[in-house]
Structure formats: structure tokens, C-alpha cells
From TrEMBL:
Name this protein carries in UniProt: Cytochrome P450
InterPro entries tied to this protein: Cyt_P450, Cyt_P450_B, Cyt_P450_CS, Cyt_P450_sf
Domain of life (superkingdom): Bacteria
Region (Disordered) residue spans: 432-452
Example of a GO MF term: monooxygenase activity
Length: 471
């Protein structure tokens, strides 16, 4: 290798491959700029031009490596020993160089399965897989109950929107895509009746990171700890009870943290997937609508997650030892953030995605890759597919109320989704009532609270307020 020593002590491989500069010495540029908010793809391309597949960036005052290359992303994701998670592996943090008030601290310092490394991780992940299985295995009654519940929740929300009139305008994000997964999360968590609704509203406040986010987080964690205590005493057919059965050593705090993780992932990411899929169907070619009526919702969703992954940047991993990646040597303990959004735009991946083909590739990274990929892919896809399916069945017309390029997006260091989804709708006329002697359709009456309970719930009052506002 031909090397040249730069004035600042850096060592560059003149064959065009390696720069041995330390992360901090590269004075990385802030990632989360106005440009990133509005056109993240341009930011990724600029970084790729300048640095190649791995770029130094500044994340709200903390330097990190962003992995933009598809091949490099796979290398990191598939090698959990070489690139473990776990904040204890972060050199700058151990040396006290991560500010105590770093804005990302609160979300990363909650030590649950998504963030955790070390010996505790494996048994926890195994327990997650076991606890999710009943909801994801189509042979299990729980999976059918879940589907029936999602259908019923979607119908409830659509009926509520319809109270604003048979035709009208609605914000499908606030009135459908966001509440639907929250209601599903409440079902998974086994909150009795609508009792979880206040907690769900608090989850919303936490995700929106407004001024009331901090007290909301405290209340939410307290409610989840109470729920955990109830499930410990009286296990039910729900996720917390299944997780405890698979991992009896979890204490109440640990269980509450895992429930928080489930609530966050379900409500935010699934909501984004629902909204993005709706936009794709409404604004896409006739083929997309046709494929929906041909029952190819899953295929449409696969395209959507590939083009617009809800989780754009993954939580950090750390180099176990000095390791070359892209044009740089990543030092042991340096944080590395894999960007699925940037990796999907890498020409190596993008040029191999057949644009015209009816079946899109599954080689994308939207659900992660390697041993730490998403354990809830089936569940999340089912919820989104059932929800989107009901929308297009119950509305005979759905059109965007804004040009697609003017829809407002919200970005965080981790996710990207629509802030609102204004649509003009027309409800389809209701199907005729079944004859009285027809067998009753399967309804999840044990999971859908009776209407009077709904009226009293804070989530419902909020949603009802949105209808009036929309008129
Ligand atoms: C559209 C919805 C979702 C998307 C796009 C998504 C995507 C992902 C991705 C990309 C990862 C890997 C992150 C990494 O490697 O750092 C992940 C991990 C994970 N997801 Fe999901 N997810 C979704 C929904 C859910 C839901 C609903 C749950 C829970 C019910 C869930 C539970 C998890 C867990 C526990 C992990 C951590 C796995 C581990 O580290 O071993 N996800 N998800």
C-alpha cells in the first residue's frame, strides 16, 4: 500500500482506500440539518461523494460514523461479534465525552432489547421471539384474534371519520395511521378495556418530543410498571405474560422497559408504514391500485419499505477492534450508525433493483439484517396490510388533498415519516346487513371495548375532536 502522511498526522492510502484519521480529528459536519429534514437523499449523496461508503458525521454534537454503502451495511449487520451493540462498548461515553444533556441520550440509555449488547442480550432476544410467536404464527389462535382485532379497530376508526360526513377531508395520519397501531399495541400488551388509552396518548406525547414529553414519559413508564406487576400476578394471553413465561428472571423494571420498546416500535413505525403505503397506492400508477385489488398489499408494502424505510438509521453499534470499513479505519469503541435509507440509494443496490418488475427484491435492509433483524416483521406487516386493506375497501375514493411533493415529513435521527396525511374521501355505501339466520361473523368482542367505554377514553375524545376540526 502506498501511503502519504498529511500535516495533521493523518495517514492516507494513496491507492484510494484508507484514511487512518481518528473520528474526532475529522471535524465531522452536522448530519441533522434543514437539508436533511427536507431532502435527506441529497445529504446522503453529498456524504457519499465526499467520503465514500462510510462517512464521519456529527450527531447533535457527538461524532459518529454513518454507513452509507450497502455492502458495508451488510458487513456490519451480519457480524454481531465484530460490531456489537451495547453503550458500554462506546469509548467516548466511557471517557465521559458524551454530554449528559445529549438529546439522543434518553432514547439510547433505556436499556432494552433493541439497544442492548453483552451476555444478557441473547436470552432476552430468544424470549422476544417466543413471546411474539403466538401473534405471528398463522396456525395459532392468537394470530387470528389479532387480525380480527386489527380489522375491527380499523373499522371503528373509519366509522368515526365517517361521522364527519360520507364525503369530506380527513388527516389519515392523525385519524387512522397513528391511532390504529396504538390500539394494536394496547391489545398486545393486554391492557384491560380502554384502560391503556391514557398510556397510549402519553406515548404519542413522547414520540412528538414536545414540551409535555418528559412528564408523559414518566407517567408512561409508571403505567407500564403497573401493568407488568399485574401480569406477573395474573398472567393472561398477551405479550407481557408470554415474555415473562419465556424469561422468568426479568424483574419489573426490565419488563416495563421491554413493554415501552414494544409500544414505541409498534406505534411509530407501523403508523409510518401505513401512511407511506396509502400514499404509494394513491399517488402511484394504476398498477399499484390494481395490485392492491389483486390482494398484493404485501408486495406494495415491500416496495414502500424499500423506497422509504421507516427506520432510516439504526441504533449504534461499536467496533470491537480497529477495523477497516470503506475508506476509513474505524477505531475500537467508535460508534457506527447503519443507514438503511442511504444504503438503498447506493448504486450497488439501487442499480440492481429491477424497476419494472412486479415482484420487488427482498434484499433490502428495512427490517435490518443478520442476527439482530426485526423479530416482529410478520406482525408489523399484518397490521399494516389489514389496515390499508380496510381503508381501500371502506372508502370508494381517497385522494391526496396536497400534491405528493408537498406532504409534510418529520425526521428524527432514527426515523422518517409523514407529519400529516390530508386526504379527500368518499365512503363506500355500507354492504347490506346479512340475513338474520346467517352465521355471525367472527368478531373479537373480547378485545374491542364496548362503545360506551370508548366514548370515555381520552384517545377517543381526542379523535372525535379531530372530526369536528376537519369539518
Ligand atoms: C414497520 C414496522 C417496523 C419496522 C420497519 C421495523 C424495523 C426494524 C429494524 C430495521 C430493526 C433492526 C435495527 C437494528 O439492527 O439496529 C428492528 C429491530 C427490532 N424490532 Fe422492528 N420494526 C418494525 C416494527 C416492530 C414492532 C411492531 C416490534 C414489536 C412488536 C418490533 C420489534 C423489534 C425488536 C425487539 C428489535 C430488536 C431486535 C434485536 O436487536 O435483536 N419491530 N426493527
Amino acid at each position: 500500500m502506498t501511503e502519504s502522511h498529511l500535516g495533521d498526522g493523518r495517514c492516507v492510502d494513496l491507492d484510494g482506500t484508507r484514511d487512518d484519521a481518528r473520528l474526532e480529528a475529522l471535524s465531522p459536519q452536522p448530519l441533522l440539518t434543514r437539508d436533511y429534514e427536507t431532502r435527506p437523499s441529497l445529504v446522503y449523496e453529498r456524504l457519499r461523494q465526499q467520503h465514500g461508503p462510510v462517512a464521519p458525521v456529527d450527531l447533535l454534537g457527538v461524532p459518529a460514523w454513518l454507513v452509507l454503502g450497502y455492502r458495508e451495511a451488510l458487513r456490519v449487520l451480519q457480524d454481531d461479534d465484530g460490531w456489537p451493540k451495547g453503550l458500554e462498548n462506546w469509548r467516548a461515553r466511557s471517557e465521559g465525552r458524551v454530554p449528559a444533556d445529549w438529546p439522543l441520550g434518553p432514547s439510547l440509555e433505556v436499556n432494552h432489547v433493541l439497544i442492548q449488547g453483552g451476555p444478557g442480550y441473547r436470552p432476552l432476544r430468544t424470549a422476544w421471539d417466543a413471546a411474539l410467536k403466538p401473534f405471528q404464527d398463522p396456525r395459532n389462535a392468537q394470530a387470528n384474534r389479532l387480525k380480527a382485532a386489527v380489522t375491527a379497530y380499523a373499522d371503528e376508526l373509519i366509522t368515526l371519520i365517517g361521522q364527519g360526513g360520507g364525503t369530506g377531508v380527513a388527516d389519515l395520519s392523525a385519524q387512522f395511521s397513528r391511532p390504529l397501531p396504538l390500539m394494536v399495541a394496547s391489545h398486545l400488551l393486554g391492557f384491560p378495556g380502554s384502560q391503556g388509552d391514557d398510556a397510549l396518548m402519553d406515548m404519542w406525547r413522547v414520540l412528538d418530543a414536545g414540551p409535555d414529553a418528559e412528564p408523559a414519559l414518566e407517567r408512561l413508564l409508571a403505567t407500564l410498571a403497573e401493568l407488568a406487576a399485574v401480569k406477573l400476578k395474573e398472567p393472561g394471553d398477551d405479550f407481557p405474560s408470554y415474555l415473562l413465561a419465556a424469561h422468568p428472571d426479568l424483574n419489573l423494571d426490565e419488563l416495563a422497559r421491554e413493554l415501552f420498546m414494544l409500544l414505541g416500535m409498534t406505534s411509530d413505525h407501523v403508523g409510518i408504514l401505513v401512511s407511506n403505503t396509502v400514499v404509494e397506492v394513491i399517488s402511484g400508477s394504476g398498477d399499484v391500485r390494481a395490485s392492491l385489488s389483486a390482494g398484493m398489499v404485501r408486495e406494495t408494502m415491500n416496495r414502500v419499505v424499500m423506497r422509504k424505510p421507516p427506520l432510516v438509521n439504526f441504533v449504534p453499534r461499536f467496533a470491537a477492534k480497529d477495523t477497516p470499513l470503506g475508506r476509513y479505519t474505524i477505531r475500537a469503541g467508535d460508534p457506527v450508525w447503519v443507514s438503511s435509507a442511504a444504503a438503498h440509494a447506493d448504486p450497488l443496490f439501487a442499480n440492481h433493483v429491477a424497476q419494472g418488475s412486479t415482484i420487488s427484491t427482498r434484499a433490502h435492509l428495512s427490517w435490518g439484517a443478520g442476527p439482530r433483524q426485526c423479530p416482529a416483521r410478520e406482525l408489523a406487516s399484518t397490521v399494516a396490510a389489514v389496515g390499508v386493506g380496510r381503508l381501500f375497501e371502506r372508502f370508494s375514493h381517497l385522494d391526496l388533498a396536497l400534491p405528493v411533493d408537498q406532504l409534510p415529513w418529520r425526521s428524527s435521527p432514527f426515523m422518517r415519516g409523514l407529519r400529516s396525511l390530508p386526504v379527500r374521501y368518499e365512503l363506500a355505501s355500507l354492504p347490506a346487513q346479512p340475513p338474520v339466520d346467517a352465521p355471525a361473523p367472527e368478531t373479537p368482542d373480547t378485545v374491542v371495548p364496548d362503545p360506551s367505554v370508548r366514548q370515555r377514553s381520552s384517545l377517543w375524545r381526542y379523535l372525535t375532536g379531530l372530526i369536528r376540526a376537519g369539518r
